Fold this sequence. Notes:
single chain; alpha+beta; FAD/NAD(P)-binding domain; 2 domains; globular; oxidoreductase; Hydroxyglutarate oxidase; FAD; FAD-dep_OxRdtase
Amino acid sequence: MSHVIVVGSGIVGLAVAARLAARGDEVTVLEKEDGLALHQTGRNSGVIHSGLYYAPGSLKATMATAGARSMVAYARAKGVAVDVCGKLVVATTPAEVPQLEKLAGRAEANGVSARRLTPAEAREHEPHVRAVAALRVDSTGIVDYPGVCRALAADVEAAGGRILFGEEVLAARTVADAPGTPGRVEVRTSRADREADALVVCAGLHADRVARACGLDPEARIVPFRGEYFELTPEAGEQVRGLIYPVPDPRFPFLGVHLTRGIEGHVHAGPNAVLALAREGYTWTDVSPRDLADSLAWPGLWRLAARNLVPGAAEVGRSLSKHAFARSLSRLVPGISAGDLVPAPAGVRAQALRRDGGLVDDFLVQSEGRQVHVLNAPSPAATASLEIARHIVEQLDAAVPAARAA
Ligand SMILES: Cc1cc2nc3c(=O)[nH]c(=O)nc-3n(C[C@H](O)[C@H](O)[C@H](O)COP(=O)(O)OP(=O)(O)OC[C@H]3O[C@@H](n4cnc5c(N)ncnc54)[C@H](O)[C@@H]3O)c2cc1C
């Protein structure tokens, strides 16, 4: 049995902790906040993605398709609210049809069943939608991710693991194996000095900083992109039965504002994507001089901005104007107007960005010594979290064979 410290009680950290605890490892989860899932995991769209969008063969593609199944099975087994309701991706102009066709091809390559629908067939699913063509994906679902986290935390504790809140990990170092003495990891936190056989860091928006404080030198930096949401008023919400997505703009990394009937029954609209002025910057007035200086000093951000001036400006416009936000939604469902939108809490995406301005597209997990760090786990990492956990534990066993055998 090994003692493993896991940093972060988002869905990835908890999935890793539950997997380790289930096989008999001693697990301590350290979380700087006072509760579970308070950042990305508790502030997302709540969608179980099918694996439709991702490059064939990538970790995202394989782990989202497998993860969609394992997440649904886990939620059902634990009594967490989940519904495999399917979704519609709609082309609203003839110009979007070739991109919709590409998406259909990608679905096929990823083994995701996606049916092409005529406008009339699309309206059988969503009577108020505007579409010149559509794709129907039956395996997409919605789930209560914080509920999944509570179930994972209960699994950790039932297997003897501990979750300690209000304890921020500040630094760590691996002490190498010596003859007769297995190595270890020394961890310094805001509360104590700790030791373990291994360390797994799932720190989301702080992944790169924690990695540097633990002696790694990650090539990419986390740049925080806020995603803002509105909720539709109950009357306007009647125009939406399930999940309606636009055809994603291939030049832009995010999926575009969409309409999602959440597991609690309300219809959410969003998220857009604007640079957050703090890593945990949920509104324009949340500003961290340190975080902002870090983002602005990273050459990758300027290169990304230069390549995305027009869509980037449109996103800021949508953030500042409810009317602009409503216009984007009315392309999908023509009846929606600004008066139908009620502000809802935002989320911030942790997106790793390389120096050359390229987004790290795939999930990225790096091992060094007795440490494993998750350096990029944006969407669909909540969907894929149980599969990411399997992958991390394999990496941990490869990195720390002695500890596993101990
Ligand atoms: C707007 C938005 C919409 C999204 N929609 C979806 C979706 O519909 N479906 C989907 O699959 N994915 C979606 N995602 C992505 C998904 O939410 C994330 O990929 C996933 O939640 C990542 O989980 P995590 O555990 O890595 O990070 P987090 O949930 O951010 O957890 C990281 C945790 O680490 C803690 N931490 C950080 N630093 C330290 C430290 N030094 N010491 C101790 N603790 C620390 C933080 O407090 C936090 O609790 C969305 C994301 C956003 C932002």
